[in-house]
Amino acid sequence: MTSAGWSIYRVARGGYQPLDESVEALFHAAQNEYLQGQWHQAEATLLRLLSREPRDAEARLMLATLYRHTQRYDAALEAIAKLTKLDAAGRWWAEIQRERRLLADRMADESEPDESEPDPSPSASNQEAENVGRDETAPSTEAA
Q1: Is residue 127 assigned to a domain?
Q2: Looking at the record, which segments are called Disordered (predicted)?
Q3: In this structure, is residue 24 part of a structural domain?
């Protein structure tokens, strides 16, 4: 009875892991969680998979992509670096390059200032104040 009680407790807490849980089953579970946008669950499943099979290139690539989606760019770069050291990385070369481009684009987008915001510099404010109410079709009096 104690064994059954402990099993129920572990299942209720989410800590139940069947002994025959294969790497393939973990990958499919992580893939399903990823596709549903369940980022934390997918990450946990991928990390569990990689603790069992650290040389799983597909899992490392999915983890890098997950980190990009969750805006953890340093972790994504680290996952890609680990991935490229694997023998199996050659098979995923195109996907790795695509992920690097997407990651670089995201990082560049976030580092650029928002162009929709006005320029806070004093010269821009003065120029805007000078142009308020000016009729652009009227001849300029500055040359006179």
Answers
A1: no
A2: 104-144
A3: yes
Q: Which SS3 state, helix, strand or coil, does residue 27 take? A: helix
Give the tokens for residue 143. 């040359």
Q: What is the pLDDT of residues 99-135, one digit of tens each?
A: 999 999 999 988 877 655 555 544 444 444 444 444 4
Evaluate whether residue 136 is within a structural domain. no
Inside any domain, residue 46: yes
**Of 52, 53, 77, which Cα lies nearest the Cα of 63?**
77
The SS3 of residue 140 is: coil
Among the listed residues 76, 131, 127, the one whose alpha carbon sits nearest the alpha carbon of residue 106: 76
**CATH number (domain holding residue 31):** 1.25.40.10
pLDDT 10s digits, 33-88: 999 999 999 999 999 999 999 999 999 999 999 999 999 999 999 999 999 999 99
Residue 51's domain comprises 18-110
Q: Cα separation of 79 and 116, whole Å?
A: 34
Contact between 80 and 100 under an 8 Å Cβ cutoff? The reply is yes
